[in-house]
Amino acid sequence: MMNADDPLLPAPDPSGWMATPPAGEDAVEHSVTAAMDYMNFHAIAWPARDSAGRLVAPPDEHVLDQLARTEGLVAEEESLIRPAAGTVAVVAELPICDICDQERARYDGIASVGNKSATAFSCPACYDRYGSGTLGATGDCYLMTLPEVSPAVRAVCDELTKRHGRASLWA
Predict the structure, then answer these.
(1) Does the predicted TM-score (pTM) go above 0.85?
(2) Separation between Cα atoms, residue 168 and residue 150, nearest integer Å
(3) Pairing state of beta strands 88-91 and 141-145?
(4) What is the pLDDT along the chain (171 residues), one digit of tens a residue?
């Protein structure tokens, strides 16, 4: 359940991921490698499609996680030790699709045509045709604007900004 006391996605169980370095191995290097492995292992790979095959937005929990991080609504230390969803980005305006150059893009990610790939803003039709279909760990993310954020996420963000003595994100 989303709440202002813990707006980030739940942390994975850290038990066992930070073993003592083998004899003779640099402890700092071992710790950095272990931390990177932990983040990569727990990276979220979220389907861009629902069970009926339709492209859909990530869940509200992912939107809240992203806003809490990018708007500085959580302690930096906490955001560094908890893997980010990385499935959604809240932007001021949706860009034009880099592929068809006609529609508003809804995705930012890798577009693959044949054996060639490049990063691209993609409208739903182009993403459906050329995108990976997976958000988060692949580097693909769903784009949405502030007015599209759900009332439930808005309420939690309003509580967080109030706690930080800041104006609402929607003002």
Answers:
(1) no
(2) 14
(3) parallel
(4) 788 999 988 776 666 555 666 677 777 777 677 666 665 566 788 999 999 999 999 999 999 999 999 999 999 988 887 888 899 999 999 999 999 999 999 999 999 988 999 999 999 999 999 999 999 987 899 999 999 999 999 999 999 999 999 999 998
